[in-house]
Write a structure and sequence with these properties.
Blueprint lengths: L1 H12 L4 H13 L15 E3 L2 E3 L3 E3 L10 H6 L4 E7 L12 E4 L4 E4 L8 H10 L7 E5 L8 H12 L6 E4 L14 H22 L4 E5 L5 H13 L4 E4 L21 E4 L3 H15 L5 E4 L5 H10 L3 E4 L1 H6 L2 H17 L12 H5 L7
Parallel strand pairs: 3-4, 3-13, 4-7, 7-8, 8-9, 9-10, 10-12, 12-13
Antiparallel strand pairs: 1-2, 5-6, 6-11
Amino acid sequence: MIRAFDAFSLPLLRWFDPEDAHRLAIQGLRLLPPMRQRPDDPKLAVRAFGLNFPNPIGMAAGFDKSAEAPDGLLRLGFGFVEIGSVTPLPQAGNPKPRLFRLERDGGVINRMGFNNDGAEVVLKRLAARAHQGGIVGVNVGANKDSPDRTADYVKLIETFAPVASYFTVNVSSPNTPGLRNLQQSAALDDLLARVIDARERVRKNAGDSPVLLKVAPDLSLTELDDVVHIARSRRVDGMIVANTTLARPSTLRETNRAKEQGGLSGRPLFRLSTRMVAETYVRAEGAFPLVGVGGIDSGGAALTKIRAGASLIQLYSSLIYKGLGLVEDIKRDLSSTLSRTGRKSLSEIVGADAATITAEDWPVQ
């Protein structure tokens, strides 16, 4: 069914403006009928952040910003779904056009600007589907014009704790002016201290809510040293590596489209984001698991990201070019690799190549 859908929809959606195509995809997922899922290979199960994931493949934040279709995505075989970024107040985001395909590069540039329906609407949607089960994380961000952005994150933790499987603190989007400044040492330490304190305050009534930190791939290694040190000292439950990049690799073929402002994702981000996964892994020293995201468009790419140090992975941009069947392709390739090498779980290969990757030349930009 998914193959037939991809064969029909991928060529059709290319005729639409990227944001219109995205809207159609969300609507299609909302209307997706219930279907019997093929059970995942038990070898693909992952335990991380106190949660049991049926497989390591997640839908990255940015696709379902306002929690309109998490169950449709889970029915397609994702092991987990991350909705958002959600802000306390509804936000229109940046002026259109703000989403651009780099087709020959397998990349995407976006400057969406945290457009979403706001916490009140998203909370109602997540509460209404809470009985469905499945792992649905909430990626939280600050409103563009907020007088106290840290307070926005605290408010969102308190609001969504009863319905979020986990939280992702997004301080790495390049499309909200000044947001990445929250990755600087003093600001990040204060933010994480207040976020973790909020999580602890609501734990009694809301249960455990793992907190993950999502970082940019454009951090210097010195900045990454500080970020990981603070994440460890504040005892976050994990990190997501990495968000989109402001860099424009010289290898890009869509040179005119590459001039658009915004964050670059997809295949051109793969080498840089994978290097940052490995660098983070060696610095974390097993203190918490990592989620690897950026340019995963095949089973081989997923395996590389895992061997760099990711316990879980996330997709988004590659689905635009490869279709929803990519999820099953990756699961099949990972299962085949484990069987062929006589391993019982993915945990046996997480970080196996991290030291080697960190010794390589820096990815060409």
